[in-house]
Structure formats: structure tokens, C-alpha cells
Design goal:
Blueprint: H1 5-10, H2 29-35, H3 86-89, H4 102-105, H5 148-154, H6 178-181, E1 206-209, H7 231-243, E2 252-255, E3 272-273, E4 293-294, E5 297-298, H8 303-313, H9 324-340, E6 355-356, H10 358-373, H11 376-394, E7 395-398, E8 401-404, E9 414-415, E10 428-429, E11 438-440, E12 458-460, E13 469-472, E14 479-482, H12 489-506, H13 509-519, H14 525-540, E15 566-569, E16 573-580, E17 584-591, H15 594-604, H16 619-629, H17 635-654, H18 663-680, H19 691-719, H20 738-769, H21 777-797, H22 809-836, H23 842-847, H24 851-861, H25 871-876
Parallel strand pairs: 11-12
Antiparallel strand pairs: 1-2, 3-7, 4-5, 4-6, 7-8, 9-10, 11-13, 13-14, 15-16, 16-17
Helix pairs in contact: 8-9, 12-17, 13-14, 14-15, 14-17, 17-18, 19-22, 20-21
The protein binds a DNA duplex through helix 6, strand 14, helix 12, helix 16 and helix 17.
DNA sequence: TTTGAAACTTAGAAGCGATGAT
DNA sequence: ATCATCGCTTCTAAGTTTCAAA
């Protein structure tokens, strides 16, 4: 099928580009007309495209055609002219690393899209176009048919299309991008004295720190420490340290980079030493008695094929194995491996359905169990051995300082676990070998030796980047990098910069909002669309939304929204429903500014569901514009800004209220604010498997509380009829009915009797121990009888609205009041828990909430930071924890 | 321009170990 | 002490942004 023209023909109108010139007709006039605000909104025109969550229709997508079809793996490689020669591209290293020849599995070389241009022929009056069509009838680029410039000219005279006011570019011309440098041993940054690297003093903002149990950390100060910050602490530390045994002398150097300044600029380090990466152990064939079956018979697989089979076998109980795409991709790739490494007993594996991997699966399960049941001491030993082995890879020397490395373990081979409807999920991910890996390391540093046979692909010394190693992965031909850990100075610095940039937005956001609000009425379509997109990004914290390719899951962000993703509901509500990053559904019904509502209606006019909503906007033009509004401003800064500012505001609102609150109440308030931000950013998680069950438990407890309350009310009535007319004691137990009460009482009765028996036994044991006479059976019997009688009485009471109690009316009133509070609180807790079951708080905490907000809040409310930040977060944000109580985002 | 490589941040799932209930 | 739960850590996929090459 290679690029069949067949496919081309089927739906090939220039799709996307809203054929009938939505907006452009001739960009000029018509655009102007269409943009007039006054027009009416024929509601009937409003498109409604309900589709249910997970599966957006995307037939049109296949028009891809312009790209090499990825499904043609089986066609002879070299043949198609459209196909880049795979040989040329295949990474040598990937081959037979794991014994699986890359060339076997990876039909095509780079999934590089070979694209043709589409010469548009419709709508002649349209802008000169070359709209590239693509996917869902959308083009790799949005199907915009015009180029912004065209608009300008034509689109209503005047209105100088802002489009190009050149943004204040920084003539800085930073150090040349490494791209070229990478070839290999880069030529060393040409003396570039002007390179903005001022890190003179930086060298020594180091302190020696001893770990103390007490949590206080600091101690003696490195002589060269520059600033005087934190002296007090140091002194204290010193004293304490004195008394303390020196043994723990494992003082770590703590580089207080945030006190030094500098750091920006493109040179990231002066010297860099590291030990490379760890490769996973080679494949170990299964014991001879563990064999998968094909058509009921055991198959004798050579190791290479067995390994791939085992990847799948380990997953047969997961959802992945239920997925058709996943299975197909796995099987296709596996067959290629099998072809080169056929079963030794001649089995010809052609049908996936006939494969039975369960013997392998069982084997893995027993192995797992074995490991688990190992004595603790042995487990510990194993772990120690592993840690020792890995130790040297966990850190590196950056400008002479020890820093933690993040992902020093090379990703093991396996089956690609793409999210959502990723067309390649299940495909075989090759074993990575030294030949695949490029190391980035200081010029004078010794070159590490790989822990498996082989030679590094290349060594480079590029100090303008932060990675230590990288390789190209075979599924999507993207790059994988080994970076420093989140707690390292390099990551910390850029993290801090990120938040500072977001804070800077505070000073510009009013103006920016004003501008885009004005532009919502712009007569230039491109501007109006951009303004509308900005409105969404700002208000709803949507992501920028780059275009995606054919061989990726169909997900969108702001700029790549399609008409089908928005539904209008008069008078001014927009319903968003689309799959965003990681194929997480974004569903939101929001009332919007009437002008935005109107705009969306206009943008959708004359377009198909699968056409781009913002056909004149893309992330690049959007960001270009944003940068012109504020230096360094991009779409994602809005997310950071809005998340943090919202969080700060929410916490501030509760400040007074929390003055005398308990610790738990404070934590709740914090988590509540955190949750609202997570919702804003649409951070979801799969509801815990046990959620329903635990909700059920809570509901039961809730009812039990209601039952108690009812009993007390009734007791009150029994004492004095007049309570019945008091609203305070009106029936409030709608969630419990007679049946439930019956069951509940029976269950309590059972429990009470059990309890009595247990107690009886225990008492007797005790008596015997003490050398006394145990109670006889009659004691228990009479207790049981008492319980039975009690429940008989309760049964009689049922429905009478009377109950017995030995409390006085006053006591009852009090107890009811208290119970009422408890019920309310519990109900809240339930609702909260249910509401939060699908909300992930972690992501915003790690990436979006300025940690200084939390640090300051903890100081204000006297909450230990450990209650809110896990150990990793504490080490990730050392620069933030010193913020004082008054610090505000 | 447009495309896509490169580099870095953000993301949820899976794995794992601590902790609390029984 | 054992088991279930839960929260944290690890893993790696999936985004964004920038810039050079075509």
C-alpha cells in the first residue's frame, strides 16, 4: 500500500482547510464581514457534536497519506521511494543488542514523514495556499489556508496586523546551539568571552553539612563560603555538632547556589565528570521446563524470541493485553523476531490466538513470590549489593561538586506502553547498547567504561547542555536523555527561574488581558483567534497544543482544538470535551465572555467537526506574540502563573480562619487549595481500585451515625412529647429505612455477641493465669441472653418513635448536637473523598505550585514542612524552604 | 517559511515499602 | 504477625519550546 493514492482519493478535499473559505474567502472583505460583532447567532447553526469521551471520531485522520504509512512495515524496505531507507537510519547499536536485530522489527527507518505538498485548488479566491493537509483532515500544520500576512493585507484595511511587530529579540545570540556541536567532540565554545557566564563567585557557595538526627542540618561553614546568610543557624549547628560524635562525618557539600546569583546563560558547567549509565543485565533464558504453548503444544523458543515473548507473558493479566492494537503490534514485531529466531522444534507461529503464554506468566509469578518470601536479612543483602554496584553511577562531579544523577539506568527493552490510542502501543522497544549512546562529559574527565561489552557511540564535551548521556529510542525515534536529579543545582536553578518568570507575569498580566480582550473583537481573523486562544489558556489553563503526527495518539491542546471539541450552549456556555496530554479527558462546561462565545460560533462556521478551530493560530505564532508582550513569556507560563497565584489566593483567604485551627484542619485547608489547583490543571489519576469499597464502608458508617442520632431523638421524645414539634429534632434520617435498620440491628447484635464471647474467653484466660477460678458457661449465657433481650427490645421499639435511654433530656440534647456535628463533618469527608478520587494532587505540587508559597505558609501556621512535602520534594526545593513567613508569590 | 531535531519539563502508571487495621 | 492500604518513588511517555536546516 505504500502511500496509496487510493487513500488519497477517498476524502481528499483539502479537508481541513475549511473548503469554503471560512473566514477567508478572500480574506479581506469576507473576513471582515464575518467578524462583525453584530451578527445574529442562529442558534440552529451552533454545532453540537457530542461524542463520548474516550473516542473522538477521527476518521479523517487517515488522510495522512501524505506521510509514509506506518503500517507498511512489511513491505520490502528498500522498495518504496517514499520510504527512507531504513538501513540508513537504523541505529547500529540497536541491532542484536538484545539479540533482536533492529532491522527485523523496525520496518521503517525514521518515522520521518515524507510529505507532499498539496496544492490547493479550491476556493481560488483564497489566499495563496499550499495548505498542507494532514491528519484528521488536518494538516501537520493547521489547515490554515492563508498565511497571516495575507490576512493583513486584505483583511480589513487598517488594523495593522500585529502579527509581525518583531518581538524584542535579544540580540544576545547565545552560544550556538549544540545541534551542530554535537557531531562530536565539539570544538569547545569558541572562547566566547561574551558568553554570559558569570559564575565566578559561584564556585564556592558551598557549605559542609552534617546530617544530624535532630533535623537541623547545618554545621561548619566552608571557609570559602561567600555570603553570610544563615549564620545563626550555622552556629547552632556547630555547637550541636561538637557534642556529636564525628563518626557521621559524611558531610555533604550543599551548594547554596540560590545565594550566589548568576546561573542564567547558556553555559551550564565548566567541568563534568561522571560514570556513564548502567545497562540492564542481559537476558536470562527461562528454565527448560518453562515453555509457552502454541495450539496446545509446547514451543521451544530460542532466547531472542523467548525474551520478547516473556515481555508479553508478563503482561497478560494487565489491561494492555486486552487491547487489540497492543496485541497486534506486539505480535507483528514478535513475528519478525521469530522469523530470524524460529522455534527450535519447528513450530510455525502464525496466529496470536493460538498462543498461550500462561506457563511463562506463572513462572514469573512464582519467582516473584519466592523473592518476596526471602528472609528480610537476605533481601537487605541483595539490596545492599545492588546499591553498591550502582553507587558510582548515582552521582557525578559538576564543576567539582558532587551532584545526584537522575535516570542513570538505561531503559530496559520491553513492549512500548503508549497511552490512550497510541498507534504503536505494544511495539517492541529494543535493548539499548553502548553503541547507541552518546556521552556528554567534560573534556578532561576520564571516559567511563560501559558495564556491558561495546563501545560508546560518541563522546562529546558540550557544556551548553545539561545531559550526561542520550540515545535515540526506536519506537518514535525520539531522544532519551540522562539528566541530573531534580534536587541538583542545575534543575533547581531552572526551576526557580521558571517560578520567577511566572511571578514576573504578575506585572504584565493586566495589560496582556486587556490586550487580548480588545483583540477578541479584532477584525483580523488571525488576531481574533489568537486572542480567543489566549483567553482559554489564561482562563482555563489549557496547554499550548502543538500539532501532532499520524503515528501518535490523537490528543489536543488549545491551538490544536478541533471544532468537535467545543459545543456552544446559549447564552454563553461552552462545553469542552477532548483528550489532552496522556489522553486524559478534559471535560468542562464554562460560561465565557459573550464575545468569546460569539467568536467560537464564528470560528466554527462552515467547518467540519474535524477541522481546526483555530486555523490561523499555532503554538509558534502564539508564543511569538506572547514573547512580544513580555520577554520570555510562553503559553506554559500561564499555567504556572495561574496555578501558583490561585493557590496563594486560596491560602490567603483562609489565613484568619486557621489561626486557631488544629493541625489537621490546617492540612485539610492546604490540601483543599491544592485540590482546586489540580482541578484547574486537570490533573487526574485513576481512581484507587478500592475506592468504591471504601466509599461503601463510609456510607455504612454514616448511616450508623444517623441511626444513633435517631435513637437519641426518639429517647428525647419518649421523655417529653413537646420535642417533637421542635424543628431541631425533626426527622433527618432519610438515608436509613426500616429494612436497613433491621439489618443493622441484626448485624450489631451479632457483633455484640461475638464480642461478649471473646471477652469471656479472654477474661477466663486471665483468671487462670492469675491462678483463679474461671467463670462458668452460665456467665456467658446470661450475657448473651441480655444482649438478645436488648435487641428484642430494640426491635419492638422500631417505628414507635420512642426509645429508651438513661440519659437526661439535657444530656440528650447535648449529645444530639455533638453527633450532628460529627455527622456533618463525616459527610464532608465523604464528599471530599469521592470528589477527589480522580484528582492527582502530586503533579501540581511538583511542577506548578511555587514551593515558597508552601514554605511561607508552613511558617505562618506553624506546620512542619514534612507534613506537606515528601522527602523528595524537600530535597527538590532546598532553594525555596528558606522563604520567610511573609513571602508571597 | 516550514519542518523536525534537540533539549528540557510535565505527566500518570507501576512498583515498592511504610504503616495501620485486624 | 499478617495483610491490606496508601503514599511515595521510580519509570518513562508525552508534552513544550527553541532553533537550525531545508
Amino acid at each position: 500500500m505504500s502511500t496509496d493514492s487510493a487513500m488519497l482519493s477517498d476524502d481528499n478535499r483539502p479537508a481541513t482547510s475549511s473548503p469554503n473559505g471560512h473566514a477567508n474567502g478572500k480574506n479581506g472583505t469576507s473576513a471582515t464581514e464575518q467578524l462583525s460583532d453584530e451578527e445574529e447567532i442562529p442558534l440552529s447553526q451552533v454545532t453540537r457534536t457530542p461524542y463520548s469521551s474516550a473516542q473522538p471520531p477521527r476518521q479523517k485522520r487517515k488522510r495522512a497519506v501524505y506521510y509514509e504509512s506506518s503500517s507498511e512495515d512489511d513491505t520490502p524496505l528498500a522498495s518504496s521511494p517514499l520510504k527512507p531507507s531504513s538501513d540508513a537510519v537504523t541505529k547500529p547499536g540497536a541491532i542484536n543488542a538484545t539479540t533482536v536485530p533492529a532491522s527485523l522489527v523496525n520496518g521503517k527507518g525514521k518515522g520521518k514523514a515524507v510529505k507532499e505538498e498539496y496544492t490547493e485548488c479550491e476556493t481560488p479566491d483564497d489566499a495563496p495556499s499550499k495548505a498542507k493537509v494532514n491528519a484528521n483532515g488536518r494538516s501537520k500544520r493547521p489547515a490554515r489556508k492563508k498565511a497571516k500576512h495575507d490576512d493583513d493585507d486584505d483583511d480589513d484595511e487598517a488594523v495593522s496586523d500585529s502579527g509581525d511587530s518583531t518581538p524584542p529579540t535579544k540580540k544576545k545570540r547565545a552560544v550556538p546551539r549544540k545541534r551542530k556541536a554535537k557531531e562530536q567532540s565539539e570544538p569547545e565554545p569558541e572562547s566566547e568571552d561574551d558568553a554570559p557566564v558569570k559564575k565566578p563567585s559561584i564556585q564556592r557557595a558551598t557549605k559542609k553539612v552534617k546530617k544530624e538526627d535532630g533535623g537541623g542540618a547545618t554545621s561548619e561553614v566552608d571557609a570559602s563560603k561567600p555570603k553570610k546568610r544563615g549564620t545563626k543557624k550555622e552556629k547552632e549547628g556547630k555547637e550541636k555538632g561538637k557534642g556529636k560524635n564525628k563518626k557521621e562525618e559524611e558531610e555533604e557539600e550543599v551548594f547554596r547556589w540560590w545565594e550566589v546569583g548568576g546561573g542564567d546563560g547558556s553555559v551550564k558547567w565548566k567541568t563534568l565528570e561522571h560514570n556513564g549509565v548502567i545497562f540492564p543485565p542481559p537476558y536470562e533464558p527461562l528454565p527448560l521446563d518453562v515453555k509457552m504453548k502454541y495450539d496446545g503444544k509446547e514451543v521451544d523458543l530460542p532466547p531472542a524470541s523467548e525474551e520478547v515473548a516473556s515481555f508479553y507473558a508478563a503482561m497478560i493479566e494487565t489491561d494492555h493485553a486486552q487491547d487489540a492494537t497492543f496485541n497486534k503490534n506486539f505480535f507483528d514485531d514478535w513475528k519478525k523476531v521469530l522469523k530470524a529466531n524460529p522455534p527450535l522444534n519447528g513450530t510455525n507461529i502464525v496466529s496470536f490466538e493460538l498462543c498461550d503464554f500462561s506457563p511463562m506468566f506463572q513462572h514469573f509469578e512464582t519467582e516473584k513470590a519466592k523473592k518476596k518470601s526471602l528472609p528480610a536479612a537476605e533481601k537487605k543483602e541483595l539490596k545492599k549489593a545492588r546499591d553498591d554496584m550502582e553507587a558510582k553511577y548515582t552521582t557525578c562531579l559538576l564543576d567539582g561538586r558532587k551532584e545526584k544523577v537522575g535516570n542513570f539506568r538505561v531503559e530496559p527493552p520491553g513492549l512500548f506502553r503508549g497511552r490512550g490510542e497510541h498507534p504503536k502501543k505494544g511495539a517492541l522497544k529494543f535493548r539499548v547498547r553502548p553503541e547507541d549512546i552518546t556521552l556528554n562529559i567534560g573534556k578532561d574527565a576520564p571516559i567511563p567504561v560501559p558495564n556491558m561489552p561495546g563501545k560508546w557511540k560518541a563522546i562529546q564535551h558540550d557544556n551548553t547542555v545539561t545531559w550526561l548521556a542520550n540515545w535515540t529510542e526506536n519506537i518514535n525515534n525520539s531522544h532519551k536523555y540522562v539528566f541530573l536529579a531534580a534536587g541538583s543545582s542545575l534543575k533547581g536553578q531552572s526551576d526557580m527561574l521558571k517560578f520567577e518568570k511566572a511571578r514576573e507575569l504578575k506585572n504584565h498580566v493586566d495589560r496582556i488581558r486587556q490586550n487580548y480582550n480588545t483583540d477578541l473583537r479584532s477584525k483580523v481573523m488571525a488576531d481574533r483567534q489568537r486572542a480567543t486562544a489566549m483567553y482559554f489558556i489564561d482562563k482555563l489553563a489549557l496547554r499550548a497544543g502543538n500539532e501532532k503526527g499520524e503515528d501518535e495518539a490523537d490528543t489536543v491542546g488549545c491551538c490544536s482544538l478541533r471544532c468537535e471539541h467545543l459545543t456552544l450552549e446559549s447564552p454563553n456556555t461552552i462545553v469542552f470535551d477532548f483528550l489532552g496530554k496522556d489522553s486524559i479527558r478534559y471535560y468542562n462546561q464554562v460560561p465565557v465572555d459573550p464575545q468569546v462565545f460569539k467568536n467560537i460560533r464564528i470560528f466554527k462556521e462552515n467547518k467540519e467537526d474535524e477541522d481546526a478551530l483555530f486555523d490561523r493560530v499555532n503554538t509558534s505564532s502564539l508564543n511569538k506574540h506572547l514573547t512580544s508582550e513580555m520577554k520570555g513569556l510562553t503559553a506554559k507560563v500561564f499555567r504556572t502563573y495561574n496555578a501558583s497565584i490561585t493557590f496563594q489566593k486560596l491560602l490567603d483567604e483562609k489565613e484568619e480562619e486557621l489561626k486557631n485551627a488544629t493541625l489537621q484542619e490546617k492540612l485539610n485547608a492546604y490540601n483543599h487549595a491544592n485540590r482546586l489547583v489540580a482541578i484547574l490543571c486537570n490533573h487526574q489519576r485513576a481512581a484507587p481500585k478500592t475506592h468504591d469499597q471504601s466509599m461503601e464502608k463510609m456510607r455504612y458508617k454514616y448511616r450508623s451515625l444517623k441511626y444513633e442520632r435517631m435513637k437519641m431523638r426518639h429517647a428525647l421524645f419518649a421523655l417529653d412529647d413537646s420535642y417533637k414539634s421542635d424543628d431541631k429534632y425533626a426527622d433527618d434520617e432519610s438515608e436509613i429505612d426500616d429494612d436497613w435498620i433491621t439489618t443493622h440491628e441484626e448485624s450489631m447484635r451479632g457483633k455484640d455477641m461475638e464480642k461478649a464471647e471473646k471477652k469471656f474467653e479472654k477474661d477466663n484466660e486471665k483468671l487462670i493465669e492469675d491462678g483463679k477460678e474461671p467463670h462458668g458457661q452460665s456467665v456467658l449465657d446470661s450475657k448473651i441472653k441480655a444482649i438478645k433481650d436488648e435487641y428484642k427490645r430494640l426491635a419492638k421499639e422500631r417505628g414507635t418513635k420512642k426509645a429508651k435511654s438513661n440519659k437526661t433530656a439535657e444530656k440528650l440534647e447535648e449529645a444530639i448536637e455533638k453527633l450532628g456535628q460529627r455527622i456533618k463533618a463525616f459527610k464532608l469527608q465523604m464528599v471530599d473523598r469521592d470528589a477527589g478520587k480522580e484528582v492527582a494532587l502530586g503533579t501540581s505540587k511538583i511542577n506548578y505550585l511555587d514551593p515558597r508559597i508552601t514554605a511561607a505558609w508552613c511558617k505562618t501556621h506553624d506546620v512542619p514542612i514534612e507534613k506537606l512535602f515528601s522527602k523528595t520534594l524537600v530535597t527538590k526545593f532546598p532553594w525555596a524552604l528558606e522563604a520567610d513567613a511573609y513571602w508571597k508569590f
